[in-house]
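Hi team,

Filling in the usual template for the complex we talked about on Friday. All components are listed, including any nucleic acid strands or ligand strings, so the model treats them as one assembly.

SUBMITTER: L.P.
PURPOSE: interface mapping
COMPONENTS: two
RESIDUES: 196
SEQUENCES:
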Amino acid sequence: MILEIAQIEIKEGTQSAFERGVARSHELFLRAKGFLGVELQRSVEFPGRYRLLVRWNSLQDHTITFRNSADFAVWRSNVQEYFAAPPTVEHHEAVNIE
Amino acid sequence: MILEIAQIEIKEGTQSAFERGVARSHELFLRAKGFLGVELQRSVEFPGRYRLLVRWNSLQDHTITFRNSADFAVWRSNVQEYFAAPPTVEHHEAVNIE
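RESULT (copied from the run log):
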């Protein structure tokens, strides 16, 4: 299982529009191959900074399959006008700490 | 509910020791006031970079109660020798995208 964390900085005053754009895109994630879950998290310390956490079955489900899908283009068109900069994206693997 | 994300860069070659230090600290989190869950996530792109995701009932449960507890000092003593730099910590509030 892969955790993608995308850090997204948006333009001042576009919070509501950006959040609506993500909500409108929720169904695209739900139907993506290997998609396991998504959370939109707003920074307490930095207004205008968000982190989108997306859980995927495999790295390729995000970096190859989703990014090359028609739905990726729709996702970007729903939100990218609000971006203050290109998002930074990293992937993670869980470490067992039980 | 608050999501804390701590970005932790560790010294080369200390991955196993650091991960064991976090595992040893798991019980400290479990008994912290307002603690709701923890994940240790290792970056795929940057070896030596981790993100610790901790869910708290309130911001104060982390920034006041936990940080001023004896358990916080034990947590730090379990892991800080492996830090390459002081961790960066941010807090987040979930946005409803349903």
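MY TAKE: The CA atoms of residues 7 and 51 of chain B lie 5 Å apart. The helical segments of chain B are 15-30, 59-66, 70-79.

Thanks, L.
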